[in-house]
Amino acid sequence: MFANETLKVLNHYRAKRHSSSLTLVQKRGMREVRELIRLKTIRLSVSDKGGEFVVIPYQLDVEVTKKHLEDASLYHPSSEKEFKRKYRKLNHEWAKMARAAGSKPSVISQLKVALPTVLYLLIKTHKLVSSDDLASNDPSLFKVRPIISRVDGPTDRITWFLTLIFNQLLKHIPAHLTNTQMFLDRLRTAQPNSGCVMESLDVTALYTNVSNDSAMQAVLELLMQHEGEINMYGFKIEQLMALLKECLSCSIFRWSGKYYAQIRGLAMGQRLAPSLAIATFQPILRIPRCFWIVYVLRSPTAGA
Hints:
This is Reverse transcriptase domain-containing protein. The protein is of the alpha+beta class. It is built from twelve helices and nine strands. The radius of gyration is 23 Å and the shape is globular. Mean pLDDT is 86; it is low at 298-304.
């Protein structure tokens, strides 16, 4: 019944003509912006936190990205050959583990992808404090958040599957909140005494400073403690850990036709990054305290 009613609504609006809310001047402006993007005169994106549009000269965007990729502690040059070796190994491990777990052949094949991930940067406009900063063409002045987009990349669908399993573990972490209302409720029920002191802490580049080994160890401990309480979809712990290791090691991406590898930490854009970061926080949250409130990349988490 629900499907029938939904189909009726869809058919109703499919046949309905919609008029644009843009004026002729606005439409012309949109066409001009698209043309500037096509000609690689500008790059149009959103900012890291503010949500505003960022229009930056295309060549300046290239220079900012090149400057970012010079960080040898985080990236090193790679190659298409190395990328293919990594994704083929990942797909081989996935097929082997999935067959052993009894997954359907159609599911196994659907989760394989051979396209490389790509890098793009979000400008931290809140770090540009003066009008001179906004007008500057110095690439070293711009602070950025790197996003390695894994949409339809080699690890995208496999990590989607792993996330189905690992996210079930988050309910066993007192610091994890499922929504903003839960966060507000925790604040209202907190009753610190006069001996408590409020402190605010920030982790610089949280994801890239979470080591893969620490993240894997945290997940392994949670799986061993709660294996019988979650749906493992037929997989064993050692199989999940093997897949997780391969996904984290498949860290090669492409930018401007060249291949690079991220050699440290979790990548922004990695489906598993939020749950792995939260799991890695566990030892810190065991430190005696009156009340913990923790934000992981603007996703509120708390523990009491």
